[in-house]
Amino acid sequence: MTYALIEGGQAGFASAGVLGALALAAVAVTVFLTAQARGRAPMMPLDLFRSRPVVAALTAGFALNVGFYGVTFLFSLYFQSFRGMSALTTGLLFLPMTVQSAGVSFASAAATRKFGAKPTMIAGQAVMGAGLLVLCLLPTTTPVWRSRCC
Questions:
Q1: pLDDT digits (tens, 9 = 90+) for 36-70
Q2: Which candidate, 112, 136, 2, 118, places its Cα nearest to that of 60?
Q3: What is the DSSP letter of 79?
Q4: Nearest to 71 by CA among 53, 108, 96, 37
Q5: d(Cα 54, Cα 46) in Å, to the nearest integer?
Q6: Could you tell me how far CA 135 lies from the centroid of its own chain?
């Protein structure tokens, strides 16, 4: 699947290699889900997906990862291609986000104990959404904390 998604942009999603990879991925997912449904001790019990809290947590986690890693990918391109910064400078510009992510992990555990999982998840998603919205609205000429360090 990963190969098909990466190569599809350049080779075209109608190319034989990409279509073959997509077909193979579909067969692999079907075989995996069938094995999980019929197995005595599945790696991923499919009954978990009937639980609303589990589905909500998985959905929130997926949204968080798409937002976080999407920003990381796009900012890497932006800093290096648009702003002409080196890979080292780009990496240094990611340090505040990395440190903040580590700190929020500890704070979210405390918030979950104090307020419960649902309010903490909702607040986290709202803050992430607001932050991504602000990033989308910033002009490309917005200065970074340091234009060049290397």
A1: 999 889 998 898 899 998 998 899 889 888 888 88
A2: 118
A3: I
A4: 96
A5: 11
A6: 16
User: Half-sphere exposure (CA, 13 Å, Cβ side) for 38?
Assistant: 6
Distances (CA, A) of 112 to 74, 106, 120, 125, 131: 31, 10, 6, 14, 21
Q: At what angle do helices 52-77 and 117-137 cross, to 10 degrees?
A: 20
Residue 51 Ramachandran class (φ > 0 left, ψ -120 to 50 alpha, else beta):
beta
Query: What is the C-alpha separation between 124 and 39, in angstroms, rounded?
Result: 37
Q: What is the pLDDT of residue 150?
A: 38
pLDDT of residue 147: 40
Closest CA to 104 of 68, 133, 137: 68
Largest CA distance in the chain: 58
The model's pLDDT over 18-37, given as tens digits with 9 standing for 90+, comes to: 999 999 999 999 999 999 99
Q: Look up residue 144 and give its DSSP letter.
A: P
Q: How far is CA 109 from the centre of its chain?
A: 20
Please give the Cα distance from 96 to 66 (Å, whole number). 19
